[in-house]
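Q: For a teaching session next week I want to show students how multiple molecules come together into a single three-dimensional assembly. I've collected the sequence lines for a complex. Could you give me the predicted structure tokens for the whole thing so I can convert them for display?
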Amino acid sequence: MLLFLARRFAVMVVTALCLTFVVFYLTNLPAKLETLAKTQAGSRMTDAEVESWLARNGYGGSMLTRYGEWLGVLPGWVIEDPDGTIRGRCVERADSAEAAGSRCGLLQGYWGTSTRFRDSVSNVIAARLGATGWLMLWVLIVMVPMALAVGVLAGMREGTRTDRSLSTFAIATTATPEYVSGVLFIALLASSTVGLSPLLNSWGVIDSPVLFQGNARSALEGITIWNFALPVMTIALYGMGYVARITRASMTEVMTQQYIRTARLKGVGFSAIVLRHALRNALIAPFTVIMLQIPWLLNGVVVVEVLFSYPGFGWTLFEAAVNNDIELLLAASVVAVIVVLLTQLISDIGYVLLNPRIRIS
Amino acid sequence: MEPLGWLDITARIAQHLLPVWVALVITFALSLRFKRRLGLYGKLFDSTVGMIGFAIVMFWVFTAIFADLIVTHNPLVQVSQMRNAVPGSPLPDPQGGYEYFLLGGDALARDVFSRAVVGAREVLRIAPFAAMISFMIGITLGLPAGYFGGRLDTGLTFLANLVLAFPVILLFFLLVAPEIQATAIPRVMAGILFVVPVIFVTVLLNARFFTQPGKRNLYVGLVLLIGLWAYSGLAFSADPLGVWGMSPNLLNVFVAVVFVNAPTVFRIVRGITLDIKTRDYVAAAQTRGEGPWYIMLWEILPNARGPLIVDFCLRIGYTTILLGTLGFFGLGVTPESPDWGSTINSGRRLLTVYPHPALVPALSLMSLVLGLNLLADGLREESLRD
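A: Of course. Below is the structure for the complete assembly, covering every listed component.
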């Protein structure tokens, strides 16, 4: 087990290094740096001025060197201006001019500064991740029980009408990406001119012009069902279908097993069979799938946070990409990659722990 | 003139879709008549779910084909006074053209109905081909990885996992951007990705016909001629005759979508190969002295077709969703493009007041993907039956 963990961890580190380098390469392309120089120091620069600006601000070295600096394994760049002031990657963090040439990067906890939000990247990311954490928490609270219930109900009696309708429902949810269901929800429940809201308002059921809010920004101050239900439902619905289908497949397989037949022949009631004998074994596959769904949800998080203008991690990623905020985009990518790799690891370990038939070695 | 009522609008849209209905009826009549002779395709018509899915998919395919006959207005032309017009609004001055905006006008006073119809063509022009290329790449790499195993397998699996560990949306932000289009990256990636289908077909035919050199030379020569001609045009826009070509925008989108899809196909093909290579007929072929590529492409691949066809349908649907996502973030599309994703994006600003410009493409996209998923479900059921 330890060897397995060690090997998995080593692969994870290599993967993380490769992925961060790819991200670093793609965000630090000459064309992107040129855009950065022009937005930072004036848009009417000549090519030569851009060159010298980049060289003066530490973008002059080779891609690998700069990647090393950013990662924190190589000492940061230091440039002494003609007037004697020393500027460098680590000067602001260092106490003295001598320490300016020390290493400062990802590994030392220095993530750079965001040009879009005019703040240090670690502050921005920490705050946004908190906001997205709440969103994800509620998504999982809504999605997991709903998906498992649909899957188990459909799978326990294969081929019945319940199974057919629930399976079709699951297929329909996987066919509705977030930007479609979000638009449908807003039009149906959060519009003051069409959908349910004007109807309910005219009947006097609700006082406000809309039932739910199509903008989730107010959820930062306090989460209520009125400002958070739509984003949560939008993400949960798309993720739910797949988990439900896996649960159903796993459940139908378990229901044909010998021990279920034995239990039936013993005269155990149907509900007891499902709850005591089938459920535990049927939930192994969905567990790993739920863990693997989390990186998928990240996609949904970006779409939904942009659609409902909820300033979380996904919205930050979008803003960073649109505004060519290199350091912020890099940091957001690192976080995203780490989330993906961690959930993969947890799902592997969980699978091994839950399924006694699998032994590693 | 009075605006039309909902009944009127529905009737007029149905009337405009007449070519689609005719084509659908002909397809279904022929398929049902000859369904016993049509293999898996014919069996699809035994399953209600599969038939519904097929009908929805074909509806959109025929809509895309006959788009020029169906549209009521030019999807790019703005008509004054029709900004955000509600569905069924009459035009102030039709000038001999069609008198109504059947599904209203969008924020730039263009006809929503015509844009949705032309959008179907935009989506169906890319999605099936991107899925097909992803499949050829996945098969060409997945078969040897599963069959030979060893270092090759370890290396390719690591690469596939690397791509899969990338959040899709991040990859799109990084890969589909104007600055990237200025570099050689899309061209290089297209150069690598697009050569694989040519290799695939060449190896496929060579493995089959290498005992008959005459036939082999003819087939492989033809494939290489057409394949490399298309390749030069699509990947490097260096086609001497100018038949094949892709705008940098389209190429970038295409490459990104294929790049995201191929590793998943690779994993599926590799898994199936690992399972099938232990079968007796593979051992029999090995004993006969068949070469590895013959065994992979003509013994293993045909026996893996069931799950692959099902996944192909699902993948077209998923590609449609990905294209919509790209459009939704305004990546890799021209601002005027009528594709569904960017139409949803431009419609969402006034969503709470005028929902129709965003709702129409949203429902279109949803129905197409739903149709593909139902079709896949029907195919899975029918292919498991025998």
